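Field: sequence (string)
Field: structure_tokens (string)

Example rows 1 and 2, in order.
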Amino acid sequence: MVPLTDQVGEALLEYLRHGRPDAPYQEVFLTAHAPVRPMKSPAAMSLLVGHHMVQVGVSCPKKGSHAFRHGFATRMLQRGQSLKTIADLLGHRNINTTFMYTKVDLPTLQQLPLDWPEEVS
């Protein structure tokens, strides 16, 4: 579990109270137009996020919900969190998957020893 910022928590509450369609589903996010139902897949949510990023003029290499995961991991790395912690929060089973986030933090990379840690089970 990761705590939400106050701003994100308030936005989520606002959506649940006033924006979420009334429907008999446990999923939080539903389609906005009839027939109201849960999103079909994570890819559908990512496409929707990407569409809105383009609409508001967000410029980044990859548009979609993955941009939020990448931004979250990059900020944690820049604030000194270990790759193991980041891997756990992102749900990575293999820490090597998390290494892709190190490529954006060159100053920190230059301070690291040459040997990478072994895989943690």
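Row 2 begins here:
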Amino acid sequence: MNANVRERLSHWLTSQNVPFAMIHHAPVYTSEEAARVRGTPLGSGAKALMVKAGEAFLLLVLPADRKLDSKMVQAGLGVKSLRFATKEELLQRTGLEPGAVPPFGSLFELPTVLDPDLAAYPQINFNAGDHGCSISMAYDDYLRVEQPQCLKMSRPPNA
């Protein structure tokens, strides 16, 4: 649990006049569990993945009902290599465990790259630095405050 990240995120959203709901729930470790406990569609989940693209770490954000397409990311960013951050790298950069990272790379001095398919839902939902705490907020507010780079980088799970 990382109350520091949750508090920083909550304070920052409040300072940006972003309405949001914070939901405390039983700890969840998959996107499917999170959607079920939140009572929200799986696709409204903003899945945040820290990767190393070329020589730089960044945060990729995509709908929780989609799979990352590494070739799309490599082509879109113009990098030859792409890999997921290790658990140790994630902990070092964010102080968080996998699955607890909110979709705000700016909190961790990481560029944020967003898959535009998340726009299918007017409200997005994500873990707030903790497996037992989620935030729900408007997609448009997320775009306004995070200002991510947009890049199509996901596909349906069976494609």
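free_text_note (row 2): The chain has a mean pLDDT of 94.
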